[in-house]
Amino acid sequence: MSTRRPGSRLATPVPAENGANGQPNSIVLGPNDRLVGQLYIEGDLRVTGTVDGTLEATGDIEIAGAGKVNGDVTAYNRLTVGSDASLIAGDVRVARLTVQDGATFSGKVSMGKPARKAEPKAPEPQPQPQVEPVVEPVVAEAAVVAAREPTKKGKRR
Amino acid sequence: MDVQEAVAEGQASVDNGEVKRDGRKQFSMGPGDILEGKLIYDGSVHADGRVEGEVRVTGNIDVATGANVKALLEGANVSLKGQVEGMVTARDKLTLGKNARLSGDIQVRRLQIDDGATLNGHVRMGDFEHQASGQ
After folding, report:
1. Residues of B in contact with A106 (CB under 8 A)
2. Which of A81, A92, B46, B98 sees the fewest Cβ atoms within 10 Å?
3. Which residues pair with residue A106 across a beta bridge?
4. What pTM did the predictor assign?
5. A31-46 residue pLDDT tens
6. Interchain pair B125, A105: CB under 8 A
7. Would you list the domain boundaries of chain B?
């Protein structure tokens, strides 16, 4: 009890460390694993099982072995589809793509650097403070003008 | 002309003025060559230089590294190493080399994309016996 932690048998104690140590996360779906739904992961993903749904990873996605993915795939870095693997997608958005001979692959492929959501130096905070002060005075003035106009323009006769 | 002679000396045999490779005719272009229009060819095509229009062949299509192609391409095995804009049909296999840049929809039976290649387009994979054989 005291020497062996309950979780020590787990092969991948990774998720809790995501981002905390600055190390990328990594998920492996084995041949008997199945995912239905949506997965967003800040790190890498390796699929040798079956996925019905949408996958998005900030790192690499590898569909290997007899892995099968049905759904949209977004990999901010590299997508690899192995020779026995299958990807039937609507949209595939990746920076780099490798498809091995023998793979089953279909979908709309868009390559190039996608706009990363997780960029540390995102310039987004700057526009927001600028926009808000501009909007408010305009609304206030408009309200004032709107309030004054009926009194001045009471020309309905 | 010089390019064809070079190919003939290197790896092909000249038979009645036709460049042949592996027993099939080959239409071989050099880096300075330009092809505009529609080419339907019973053999294989090595595309280099600039190609615009439509190329349908019974054999293979090979687009060289420095080539600039804006054309519909259809062949048995299609290998792209250069820049291609247009729809590509490979009755057997399409290979995108590491320097390939393809913008266009593709229809293939088999597909290989090497790391470094760029692809923007819709991929359809499957068997299609009839539509491609009509040239």
Report:
1. 123-126
2. B98
3. A88
4. 0.70
5. 999 999 999 999 999 9
6. yes
7. 34-133
